[in-house]
């Protein structure tokens, strides 16, 4: 969706600040191109608000500042075919993506094939309406680029698995690649139990903050008004809670017998694949109000 100048909501001053902060110039993305990306993503996602709500200027600014701006600029530069962006992308992501693909397939050959196919797709070898098109245009910056890439890789792995199952005799592929979907299902069960244990042991404050921000999609500004503390306090507490819970999840998964790498891969799974009621686990309990002093650190 392209927005005309008359519909622009991103001020020139803020757009300049975000463009510079993202280092977009280093990946050959112009101010206008980056501003268009921010505007399009904001309009598409309604600035993180419920569909029926209308974002004000402050809410729009909070949404844009919360994006992974450097990764968004890199993805947009790659999608536009900028050479410096691709050089940086390959230097940062080629090795970890190939490693993830090998782990997913259980085969070096199939993993490298899967990763290479993804690079070609991301480069934009396909066309839409006569124009080069890359899936990187869909990256919104709301999550990490690596997490987004892993999700795409996992989808392509499913397609590869189905194709291999139809066209290849089991004896013709490497033994490690001839696996069923059972290990993935076991990993999902490990992850489900780990999430349940970790969230059930989280404090009432942590559960409320996580539920309000990630499930109900309230902005930091809205949460700060309800709790009567500064937005920076909410931001610090959210960061602290997510980091602590991630460490606890990794520790729990390791305790269930997963290797460090397998535990990390499990945390990169699509939440929709995990059969668990997050809303129920994150239901707010009565707790002490948050103070600005408590949020320091």
Describe this structure in words.
The protein folds into 2 domains: 10-179, no CATH class; 182-281, Arc Repressor Mutant, subunit A (Orthogonal Bundle). It has 13 helices and 2 strands, in the order H-H-H-H-H-H-E-E-H-H-H-H-H-H-H. It has helices at residues 12-21, 31-44, 57-66, 69-79, 83-105, 108-123, 145-167, 182-200, 204-215, 220-227, 231-255, 260-267, 278-281; strands spanning 126-128, 131-133. Helix 11 crosses helix 12.
Radius of gyration: 21 Å
What is the H/E order? HHHHHHEEHHHHHHH
Strand content: under 5%
Query: How far is the N terminus from the C terminus?
Result: 41 Å
Q: Which structural class do the helices and strands define?
A: mainly alpha
Write the layout of secondary structure elements.
Blueprint: H1 12-21, H2 31-44, H3 57-66, H4 69-79, H5 83-105, H6 108-123, E1 126-128, E2 131-133, H7 145-167, H8 182-200, H9 204-215, H10 220-227, H11 231-255, H12 260-267, H13 278-281
Antiparallel strand pairs: 1-2
Q: What labels would you give this structure?
A:
mainly alpha, about 60% helix, two-stranded antiparallel sheet, about 300 residues, Arc Repressor Mutant, subunit A, 2 domains
């Amino acid at each position: 969706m392209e927005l005309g100048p008359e519909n622009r909501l991103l001020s020139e001053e803020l757009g300049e600040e975000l463009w510079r902060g993202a280092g977009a110039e280093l990946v050959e993305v112009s101010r206008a191109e980056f501003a268009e990306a921010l505007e399009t993503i904001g309009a598409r996602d309604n600035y993180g608000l419920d569909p029926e709500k209308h974002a004000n200027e402050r809410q729009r600014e909070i949404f844009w500042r919360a994006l992974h701006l450097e990764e968004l600029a890199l993805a947009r530069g790659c999608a536009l075919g900028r050479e410096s962006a691709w050089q940086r992308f390959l230097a940062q992501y080629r090795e970890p993506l190939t490693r993830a693909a090998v782990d997913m397939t259980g085969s070096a050959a199939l993993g490298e094939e899967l990763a290479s196919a993804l690079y070609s797709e991301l480069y934009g070898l396909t066309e839409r309406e006569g124009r080069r098109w890359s899936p990187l245009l869909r990256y919104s910056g709301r999550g990490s680029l690596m997490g987004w890439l892993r999700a795409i890789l996992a989808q392509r792995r499913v397609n590869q698995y189905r194709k291999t199952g139809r066209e290849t005799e089991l004896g013709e592929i490497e033994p490690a690649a001839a696996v069923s979907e059972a290990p993935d299902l076991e990993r999902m069960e490990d992850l489900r139990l780990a999430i349940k244990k970790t969230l059930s042991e989280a404090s009432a404050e942590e559960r409320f903050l996580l539920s309000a921000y990630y499930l109900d999609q309230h902005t930091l500004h809205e949460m700060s008004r309800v709790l009567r503390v500064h937005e920076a306090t909410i931001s610090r507490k959210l960061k602290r809670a997510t980091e602590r819970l991630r460490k606890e999840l990794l520790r729990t998964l390791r305790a269930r017998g997963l290797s460090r790498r397998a535990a990390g891969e499990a945390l990169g799974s699509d939440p929709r694949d995990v059969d668990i009621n997050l809303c129920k686990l994150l239901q707010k309990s009565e707790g002490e109000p948050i103070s600005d002093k408590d949020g320091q650190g």
